Amino acid sequence: MLVLAVVVLLVDQASKFWAISALSHGESITVIPGLIRLRLLLNAGAAFSTGTGVTWVFALTAAAAVAGILYVGRRLRSLAWTFVLGGLLGGATSHLLDRLFRPPAFAQGHVVDFIDYGGLFVGNVADIALVGGCALLLLLSLRDVPLGGVPDKGRPSV
User: Fold this and answer.
1) Could you tell me which of 98, 94, 93 has the C-alpha nearest to residue 65?
2) pLDDT value of position 158
3) In terms of CB atoms within 10 Å, which end of the chain has fewer, N or C?
4) Residues with active-site annotation
5) Low-confidence spans in the chain with pLDDT less than 50
6) 81 — phi, psi (to 5°)?
């Protein structure tokens, strides 16, 4: 779990460093015409730039998520859950670091977004890990895959 979290964190922060240096003057790079382009956006809010006036709440939420994942992660025995929680931990930690240490101020930092999905929204590598992790979390939950990796034989199947 921790290894994947560190990989997500490093890739996300490195890609944000690149985006700030390469796209900071309003540049835009088309990757797939009409679908994906790279453009810099400093996001003070949450998804779709909502809640821009309460950035500190997002810092607290990310800190709680990191703490919760670390707590739950102590019980892991399932490779699938280890993968899910590693991705979630890496994404949440990277967003927490952005909130804590990026301008304009401590605990009010803006998240660096740069992957524009056809004008619908702009995200980053941590967002990909978070959305993917949530989708896999839902799938594992619906399939009753336990964190401990051993299915509960006494539970009736649905």
Assistant:
1) 93
2) 41
3) C
4) 113, 127
5) 157-158
6) -70, -35
